[in-house]
Amino acid sequence: METEDIIKELAESYPSVPKDTLLELLLVCNGSKSSTESLIIDSLGLPPKKRKLDKPKYQSSISGLFQNSKRGKPSTTIQHAVRPFTNPGSIRQRTQVIQLFDPDDVSEHLAPYASLHRSFLPTELSNNLLRHLMSQTSKLSENEFYLFGQLCKSDHATGVFSDKKVNGKSSSEYVYNGQKVGHHNYTDLIKEVSKLAETFVNEKVIPHQKALPFQQVDSDRKWKGERCVVNYYENGASHLDWHSDRLSHIGPHNFVISISLGATREFRLRRNYNNRAQTEAEEKMPTTIYSISLPHNSMLIMHPGCQEEFKHCVQALNRPFENNPISGSARFNLTFRYFPPYFYDNCPKCNCGMSMTLRRSFKEVKSRGRYFWTCENTYQNKPCGTFHWADFNNADGHWVYDENLDGGKVSEWFAPDDLPKIKMKEKERAEKGFSVGSTDLLGVDDIYQ
């Protein structure tokens, strides 16, 4: 049975569970419909609703959620890629691709979620760092993981670098893709760059932005570049598929700092949903893709809320936009992250003993913005099926929602430009007698600002 058909049947049996949550649970259960139903009943306490018989089935693919786009380099500022509309029998819709060439373009279209900074490092430092990274490729390797029972391998090489000790503990003590991640100590050059990134974020960015409700910084409201994932793209065919960075270690509303070195490549972002949809049909239309050219020594900052609202990828090309005189067609990308100890050290464990994966619902308007925990061991094809809604006020309960806890609430955040969600919230307030625009029904967990 096709995955789309399984989701459709599950949605008919459990209409109160959002489809994006059903998809996550199906992934946790390795594509097994019966295991997913058991998980829903055991974890969420929901009995199945009797399904109506003889309903017609529509067949479509959800592979686009997991596969990289192969449309190639755009030749103009705005281009369109033809994709089928999700409703059967409807006309074909177009995905708009907008090319962003400079920081002003990025600010106009993607603020406050992303910003571009050209020539971030001193020229000599950027070139020395590139040469240094070229000597470190033996420390990088391809990631392997399972998706719906199939073994997958990344199309680029990756390595993790960090200080020997982070917050007094071994920096290798964290799990990714169901495996404990090894690390390499920061080299002098990488550490120097991490400090420059820290200074920029703490002095030039944070003081000028309003903090989001779950924003992750230390007690002094500082961000730290304590860990760095180095990605190596050997040539233009090396790519990174559509994804959002996991929130499990960095927590919700955190920064990801990305510094590009070597060949120029195309970095793409697209919204997880249509934030200005007025009808159900518009909600299903493909979202705009924003394509950013990242030359040598450019820094892209993904700001708090970006991982919640957007997916990103590195597009595969026949050749890079521009080769680098030092590395040729090869590109390195350093992504600096901060693992807040008060959050990371307190993450829940699933039944198989591993730290859990934190995600956020985004497909269905009703559930959009709600955070939840799933089993990390899914990526090793050994899921235990543990599922929890998240409550970021429940530190004593490892950030897990407890319906028996006085004041407990599923943590929720939605964007200030999420018009369908805002419209739904305003309707709920009006039905309860509150004036339109009142925030009396909104707590810190769901305020949209």
TrEMBL record:
The reply on keyword Manganese is: no
**What positions does the domain GRF-type occupy?**
350-393
**One Pfam short name:** 2OG-FeII_Oxy_2
- In its UniProt record, which GO terms are filed under biological process? DNA alkylation repair
Gene3D superfamilies in the cross-refs = Alpha-ketoglutarate-dependent dioxygenase AlkB-like
Q: Give the record's keywords alphabetically.
A: Metal-binding, Zinc, Zinc-finger
> Does the record bear Lipoprotein in its keywords?
no
Q: Which residues form the Fe2OG dioxygenase domain?
A: 224-340
Q: Which GO terms describe its molecular function?
A: dioxygenase activity; zinc ion binding
Q: In its UniProt entry, what is this protein called? A: Fe2OG dioxygenase domain-containing protein
Q: To which species is this protein native?
A: [Candida] railenensis
Q: Top-down, what is the taxonomic lineage of the species of origin?
A: Eukaryota, Fungi, Dikarya, Ascomycota, Saccharomycotina
